[in-house]
Design goal:
The protein has helices at residues 6-29, 34-44, 61-72, 175-184; strands at residues 77-82, 87-92, 95-101, 114-117, 120-131, 134-148, 151-155, 171-173, 190-194. It is α+β, with helices and mostly antiparallel strands and 195 residues long. It has a single domain (56-194), classed as L,D-transpeptidase catalytic domain-like, CATH 2.40.440.
């Protein structure tokens, strides 16, 4: 007796392709944005003990540490920004491949701690906004990689105060370092910002 699998193999092959796509995409889907945590916490009510931790809350050090541990056990490329040390480190799994002094947000425009992913990349971008009651308009910001709303890692040609928190919330990198990072990182590369 012969079994006819004919179209069954085609269906199985399609199912395997779909599952492979879903499984490969899961790590990117699991990296929540700052806004999603803030909205979830707000919806749950600020006084609720069941509200999830905001990625920017001071109580998230264990959560961020768990992410770092998982990323170090992988072979994945990821970016770590240490706000206390004003240092950005690019990792491949547990191996640091690049490290540089950066300038993150000053106290009034703090860079939010949390776990994110590179959302968009632009060779140059124009940045406009308000900081400390003053308008700013900076053309041709080089090697811009947005990771959460208007927060980005980018080159900064207008100052050389790297190692001090002087930005309006973004992560300023010396232009040469920003070029290296821009070419190394991909869309979806995890970005861990920690205190």
């Amino acid at each position: 007796m012969f079994l006819n699998f004919g179209s069954g193999f085609a269906k199985l092959s399609s199912l395997i392709q779909i599952l492979s796509f879903v499984l490969c995409a899961i790590p990117v889907w699991l990296i929540p944005s700052q806004a999603s945590y803030a909205q979830t916490a707000e919806a749950a009510g600020s006084g609720s003990s069941d509200a999830p931790l905001s990625a920017a809350s001071t109580g998230n050090s264990e959560w961020v540490a768990a992410w770092i541990n998982d990323l170090k056990q992988s072979n994945q490329r990821w970016i770590q920004v240490n706000l206390a040390e004003q240092r950005l480190t690019a990792w491949e799994g547990s191996t640091p491949v690049f490290s540089i002094a950066v300038s993150t947000g000053r106290a009034s425009d703090a860079t939010p701690a949390g776990v994110y992913a590179i959302e968009t990349k632009y060779r140059t971008a124009r940045m406009q906004g308000e900081s400390q009651g003053k308008q700013y308009d900076i053309p041709d910001v080089p090697y811009t990689m947005y990771f959460s709303g208007s927060y980005a890692i980018h080159g900064a040609y207008w100052h050389d105060s790297f190692g001090d928190p002087v930005s309006s919330g973004c992560i300023n990198v010396p232009v040469e370092g920003a070029a290296w990072l821009f070419n190394w990182a991909n869309m979806g590369t995890p970005v861990v910002v920690q205190n």
